[in-house]
Each structure stands twice: as C-alpha cells, then as structure tokens.
Design goal:
The structure is a single chain. By secondary structure, the protein is α+β, with helices and mostly antiparallel strands. It has a single domain, classed as Cathepsin B, Chain A (Alpha-Beta Complex). Helix content is 31%, strand content 19%. It contains 14 helices and 18 strands. Strands 6, 7, 8, 9, 10, 12, 13 and 18 form an 8-stranded mixed sheet that branches. A two-stranded antiparallel sheet has the order 1-11. Strands 2-3 form a two-stranded antiparallel ribbon. Helix 2 runs antiparallel to helix 7 and helix 5 crosses helix 7. The longest helix has 18 residues. The chain starts with 39 loop residues before the first strand and ends in a 10-residue tail after the last strand. The N terminus is likely disordered.
Length: 428
C-alpha cells in the first residue's frame, strides 16, 4: 500500500464533540479465561490516563495527549496531565503569526501537526500552564479563549494585518485571551522570547529550557520494540522521530498510515493494530463520525445508521484501547476479558474477524445526552461494519453537514498511527 499524506482535520470537517454548544472536531450541540493453571493476559493492557472532555474542535490534540500520557505512564508509573491548552495556544499562534487566520481560528489538525508543535514548543503539564484546570475534566478556558481570539480577529486588535505580522503583539493577544498569569507569561518569554525568536528545535538543541517547559527528548516514554520483542524505556522524541509534517523518520518513530481498500489489506492492517494493542502500545485512529450511528450503548453501528439515516458528520481522532474478535472456530474473545497467550495468537489469524475496536474518547466519561449504557465510561466501541462502511457522505453548508444532501460515500476509517516495526506488510 502506498503511504499517503496525513489527513487534515479541518474546522469545517471536524465535529466539536466535547461540549454541547460548540463546533470543531464534529460539532457538539450539547470469553472466558483459559484452562485452570494456564497464564492469562488481557487482550490489551494499555494503562490509559483519565478521560477528558474537549470543549472545542481540537480532538486531535486530546488524542495525541492521551497517547503521550500512556507512553509516559508505562515508563514512570505516574499519571501525567499533559496540557492540551498549551498545544492549542501554539497552534493558534502559528496560524495568526504566519498569516493563515484572517477572520476565524481553525481548531483542526492532525498527528503531523502535533508532532511539529512538540518539536518546536515541547509540552507543559496543565498545572504549569492553566493551574485552575489541572483537575478539570473539561477546559472552559479553551472555549473562552477561542471566542476572544475570534472576536479580536473580527473587531479587535487582530483585525489589523499589521498587528498579526507582529509576533510579540500576537502573543500578547493570546496571553490575554487565555487569561495567562504573569508567571506563565514569564516562563514563555524566558524560553521563546516575547516575539518567539527561539524554538526548542533550533535554540535548545543542547540545553534544557526549564521554566516548566519540557522538550520531547527529556520526557520519559516506554514503547515496545518489535524487532527485539522487548519493552524499551525511551524518550518521547524517539516515538515522534524527526522530520516534517508529511513524514517522520527514526528507528522507533510512529507513522501515520492510511486504511487500505481491499479486504485482504485491511485484515493485515487490523492485525498490525492488534499486535500493537497486545504489546500495550496505544494507537491513534482517525475516523469519520456520523452521530446517527451512535447507539445508547456507546457503539458506532452501521445498522443503527442505516435505520436512522445520515446525521451530523465530521472527522475525529481518538486512541485505541481494546478490541473484540471472533476466532476462526467461532469462539469470541470479548473486550476487557482475559485470554491465554495461545488465544491471543489465534486472534491474529487472517481468518479471525475483529468485531469492534474500543477507543478512549475525549467527550467526557458520563454523557447521558449522548449515551446511557457504556461498557466503559468515556470509551466507545467502533464496530467494524461501521469502520469499513461505506457510509453516505453529506455535503457541508456553513461548516455543518447537510443530512438531506449526501451524494457520495466514504469509508469511515481513515488512518492509524502505528509503531515502528509493524507496517512492513501494509506500506511502511
């Protein structure tokens, strides 16, 4: 399979899934254990951090943060709360300072976008960026800041192109919109300069920036080396690799790979994902949401969608956690239940059929307005009949999909970010 360019999750294509009144990453309106004495293992053992809830359309940042936190937790045993707001701040800065935002900020992005942001600006913990939200499930600061910046673009300081060309003034507007206190602003100034004359990839190659700003090369992570079949404690930079938005390189670098079209290639792709999950390595997945496919049991079902017809649509990014599979003899290995090593091996047979993948989402843990009976709070089951599609694709009007105008069709599963060593049979 040819490796295609990563899919860009645009503002108009994304659904703001975290809140009930915003638009963004798809808009929010509001079997058994083995024989006695045999060793068992969960189908997956990814030690995820707590579920969060996005308030704007930056699901790709939340998915990436979950991925980073899981890699770090496996290495340290500690649950870090990485600041999604910090990366959102710099995403907006680059749009404004580079002339890409004239009337409204785009909240959309991709894995390639976040990798580049981490290269240049590293990461911060939420307690060090927006301390008031260090324990919050949802960031109200993000939605307030978005409204403030968009208003500034329309009627305020950022309406003036000369201001947008002044990087120090752009940062000042962002600092004000985000309500950053003087200590945090001082940290950013000390590391990057008031006009962002320094970035981590250029000015801090040898020295740590300190001031609570962490380079990827200093942030602990643990991955699974599929060439040696061992867990390795590394740094986040090893998992990210180096390179541009379009391509990341490095012996341990994860790669964004498009979901193939043929049944045989798709099964190889699924097996690569299964192997990653067996090794407790989180996998980011990009997929198309149609809310009419969401059942009260928190499943995305083609059957449900066919019954109800098309609804609101958009792009989404989440992190995989588990899966359910029917073996070639008809036995079902259920998500969340233990299985012997032999059964896990049989789950990788090309004749085995994955029934669904379970993903950690960024829509909050308890959402009676969206679902009432989740197998795992904050997680969703993406049935393969839905992911394989095809489903109707509706035309967008004013940033919203029109369920009455759906002339085309699409495969909902777009791509996945896979660890090094798993893609030889599927394209990289």
């Amino acid at each position: 399979m040819t490796l295609l360019a990563p899919r860009w999750l645009t503002l108009s294509a994304l659904l703001a899934l975290g809140a009930t009144t915003s638009i963004g990453c798809a808009p929010p309106t509001d079997e058994e254990a083995g024989e006695e004495g045999s060793s068992t293992d969960d189908i997956t053992q990814i030690d995820h951090t707590k579920v969060k809830r996005q308030s704007i359309g930056n699901c790709w940042i939340y998915a990436s943060a979950s991925w980073v936190e899981a890699l770090n937790k496996r290495s340290t045993g500690v649950e870090a709360n990485v600041s999604e707001s910090y990366w959102t701040y710099w995403h907006w800065f680059e749009q404004l300072a580079n002339g890409r935002s004239m009337t409204e900020i785009s909240t959309g992005g991709s894995y390639g976008t976040i990798a580049g942001l981490i290269d240049r600006y590293g990461l911060m913990l939420e307690a060090d960026f927006v301390a008031a939200e260090s324990e919050a499930e949802m960031s109200n600061r993000q939605s307030a800041a978005l409204a403030a910046i968009n208003e500034s673009l329309k009627t305020g300081a950022l309406k003036d192109p000369a201001v947008r060309r002044n990087r120090a003034k752009v940062r000042a507007e962002l600092d004000k919109a985000w309500g950053l206190d003087r200590t945090v602003v001082g940290r950013l100034d000390a590391v990057f300069g008031t006009g962002v004359t320094k970035t981590l990839d250029r000015s801090y190659v040898r020295n740590r920036p300190n001031n609570s700003i962490i380079r990827a090369r200093d942030f602990d992570a643990a991955i699974y080396d599929f060439t040696t079949n061992t867990v390795k404690k590394v740094k986040l930079q090893d998992a990210l690799g180096t390179g541009s938005y379009w391509s990341r390189s490095g012996p341990l670098a994860f790669q964004e790979v498009n979901y193939p079209s043929s049944a045989a290639a798709r099964r190889k792709f699924q097996i690569a994902v299964q192997k990653s999950l067996h090794a407790s390595v989180p996998v980011i997945i990009s997929w198309k949401v149609d809310f009419n496919a969401l059942s009260q049991s928190s499943q995305f079902s083609k059957e449900e969608l066919d019954r109800r017809g098309p609804g609101r649509q958009g792009g989404h990014m989440t992190v995989m956690d588990d899966y359910q599979v029917k073996l070639s003899d008809g036995r079902v290995l259920k998500a969340g239940e233990p299985a012997t090593a032999d059964l896990l091996t049989r789950a990788l047979d090309t004749r085995a059929t994955v029934e669904f993948f379970r993903v950690k989402n960024s829509w909050g843990a308890i959402r009676p307005d969206r679902w009432s009976d989740a197998a795992k709070p904050g997680y969703h089951d993406l049935l393969m009949s839905y992911l394989n599609g095809p489903i109707k694709e509706c035309v967008e009007r004013d940033g919203h999909s029109d369920p009455t105008n759906c002339p085309g069709s699409v495969t909902p599963w777009w791509d996945a970010v896979l660890p090094a060593g798993l893609g030889n049979d599927i394209g990289f």
